[in-house]
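REQUEST FORM: STRUCTURE PREDICTION
Request ID: SP-0412
Submitted by: Lab K.M.
Chain count: 1
Length (residues): 210
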Amino acid sequence: MKKDAKEAIVKAAISLFNSNGYSGTSIRDIAKLAKVNSATIAYHFNNKPGLLEYCFLHFFEQYLSRIEEAYTSIDQGAKACLKQIVADVFHYQCENSELTSFVYREMSMDSQIVREIMSTYSLKEKYYLQKIFERGFEWQEFRPHSIPYLIIQLKSLLMMPFMNSQYMREVLYIFPNERFFEQKYLKDIYSWIDFTLCTDLPIQKSAIIK
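STATUS: Completed
RESULT:
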């Protein structure tokens, strides 16, 4: 029962945080939507900042685990590894579009929890992406380029649909939680990898196999 209540609280919090913003959502609002009392929220999360921290950690633990798992394929080539990371991360974001939208919006704020996330999860993500780009340069799969700028471009492609979800729905009539959007947009990111990032030089297989 406690587990069901905790899941209901998290689901309600994500929905309300996403639609009303963190500051515009009260513990009472969350309790009402989750059909629990405020004491139950206090039992599981202590307070609203505790619930926010749980949502952040849950999102980034799952996000980073997909990067780490896909990175194990790096010896098959930097391009293939990067595409696997993009596919896995983007699928996770689409499956959890409300949580993704809320987290990305909140990450634009200067707060203690955001600084903590950036000093741990964001730096780990940068480490893996940097290693992939460096391998891609070494193996002549990728055109030489500034790695920070490549990360900016890739992260922009991955984040934009969720940072601007209202614009996507109300202006473009595109819905990031729909399977069609995921498939179509993933092809566009692959095109960026194939035609902007990659070189036409042949891959040196001997350099890949250690």
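NOTES: The CA atoms of residues 86 and 155 lie 10 Å apart.
Reviewed by: T.R.
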